[in-house]
Amino acid sequence: MFSRRKETARAIEALQSEVTSLRETLDSQSEAVAGDRDAARNVAERLAALEARVSGMGTELSRQLHELGDEIERLANDVADPAVRESVEILRSVQVQLAAEQARYEIAFRQDLAELADRLLNRPPT
């Protein structure tokens, strides 16, 4: 009878020890998940800020290129000399190329930024 109680007591102690160990493991894993969540949130916030900056810079550059196009157009309307008119047309062509290139770079940068965010957040690329 005492033997059985000792075995039961040992089994209970072993279970308590195992429960304590499982609680410690769960606590450490919960802390790790919380840390990962905070890190992911931090990365997401930094990426959002970076995207906002790039968007603002892209908008400003687009506005400046548009203003440049307007100035070139006014200049083209005011010029009568064929040689100068040809130079203005070349300038207009370059301005259009710059605007198109700026748009391509902005699109590519946004795609790269989205891919980076997916990698950092361990999501499959979209």
Tell me what the structure shows.
The termini are far apart. It is rod-shaped, with a radius of gyration of 33 Å. The chain has one domain (2-120). With 126 residues, it is mainly α. It has helices spanning 2-78, 82-120.
Beta strand count: 0
Radius of gyration: 33 Å
What structural class do the secondary elements suggest?
mainly alpha
Mean pLDDT: 85
State the end-to-end CA separation: 67 Å
Shape: rod-shaped
Helix content: over 70%
Query: What's the story with the biggest beta sheet?
Result: none
In the predicted model, the low-confidence regions spanning at least 5 consecutive residues are none
Q: N-to-C SSE series? A: HH
Strand content: under 5%
Write down the domain tally.
1
Number of helices: 2
